[in-house]
Amino acid sequence: MTNSHYIAGRWVEGQSSDCISVNDPALGQPFAEFMAASVAQVDQAVAAARSALPAWKTTSASERAAYLRGFAEQLGQRREALITLQMRNNGKPRHEAEIDLDDAIATFGYYAELAEQLPAKNRDVPLAAPGFTARTRLEPVGVVGLIVPWNFPLVTSAWKLAPALAAGCTVVLKPSEVTPLIEQAYGQIADALGLPAGVLNIVNGKAETGAALSNHNGLDKLSFTGSNSVGSQVMRSASAQCRPVTLELGGKSAIVVFDDCDIDQAVEWIVAGISWNAGQMCSATSRLLVQDGIADALLPRLQAALENLRVGNPLTEEVDMGPLTSQAQWLKVASYFATAREEGLQCLAGGKALDRDGWFVSPTLYTDVPKHSRLWTEEIFGPVLCARRFASEEQAIAEANDSRFGLVATVCSADLDRAERVADALEVGHVWINSVQAVFVETSWGGTKGSGIGRELGPWGLSAYQSVKHVTRCLA
């Protein structure tokens, strides 16, 4: 395929010598390829965004809101094609791909509403000192670079793109080289809506392209979602430029199950937290803390539930879980299976790659995992669940918080006062109580400790792309 980069309102061919191969993970075979963007093309994209900024940031709030609603409507019109592409390139089951699309649509609609409220945010500020007046302006931060991952394409980009455009920023978007195709829908929609040239630019590529964007001195802000190893490089480049950065990084999240919990419901929440998107989520609740009084009854049912999950090709089978999205991730997860064998961990379910075409692994459960085990402390990014028992509420909180990450957690208990108390004590950015991981655009997303800097979604997501200006005037 050609013309895979959207720069200054035009589709262009990549000029790098690096070829991007797009794979179907259920087959382990490529189905598309194209040339990556060159460093010079990244320069062109940033220059286009810089050129478009003065006019775009002065458009009315209602005009920007209309474009955002147009994005939502156009995503809906492309529904079946985008769902199929999510299934084919990511290996997502249909119900997951449908939720992804609905999430992206809701995000653009929500930020359209917030964009319309922006004029009211510019307001007078009362001063204690006489003889002066003051007012506040919220202004777009400027040209922003957006680097998004492969596990939730379309969704993560919507979480960044919609508030950035709502704020009046112009954008250079770099999708993952593993799943680069679905984000092209945003360029196609920009064309269909007549979005001014340069407001949205899309450059595809591997590490060289990402580095060229994150190091570019033409950016005013960079927002990155991905691994901690790459995130640290992005942070170093931001520090060299002394510019703001938002980082949404890894997790090793806990799900805490108390002994008053309904076992069947607990199993449902646990399975969803580790098998959704084949466990390829920074928010995967991959550490199970189960109270002594319920553990002997819960673990066998959990084992059976994981073993009964239907794993297969979402395009040809009715499945609960698809393949891992890339061969690199499949090899990584397989290496943790080997580590588990070396450490002598007790495996109740799975623990192996599946002997079939594509990059499939079995949903896996290890029990009584030591706190020093690599599988307990490291983000695996696959359907690998590690369990430990606890005796008291205090112990559960201490073990859940004993992590270098702090993204999310889940608490399961019939005692809602206790559940709320534990939720308040957990050192994370988002807690679910007696629920699957339902994410709403009105709430915030982001973590503490090694899970990143800043927040996305909600009004906090919009604030991330705004700067605050005060104007003070002497009345004399």
From TrEMBL:
Active site per database record: 248
CDD domains: ALDH_F10_BADH
InterPro entries: Ald_DH/histidinol_DH, Ald_DH_C, Ald_DH_CS_GLU, Ald_DH_N, Aldehyde_DH_dom
Alphabetically ordered keywords of this record: NAD, Oxidoreductase
Superkingdom of origin organism: Bacteria
A Pfam family this chain is assigned to: Aldedh
Aldehyde dehydrogenase domain boundaries: 11-471
UniProt-recorded Gene Ontology molecular function terms: oxidoreductase activity, acting on the aldehyde or oxo group of donors, NAD or NADP as acceptor
SUPFAM superfamilies given in the database record: ALDH-like
Keyword NAD: yes
Family affiliation: Belongs to the aldehyde dehydrogenase family.
Record's protein name: Aldehyde dehydrogenase
Taxonomic source organism: Pseudomonas putida (Arthrobacter siderocapsulatus)
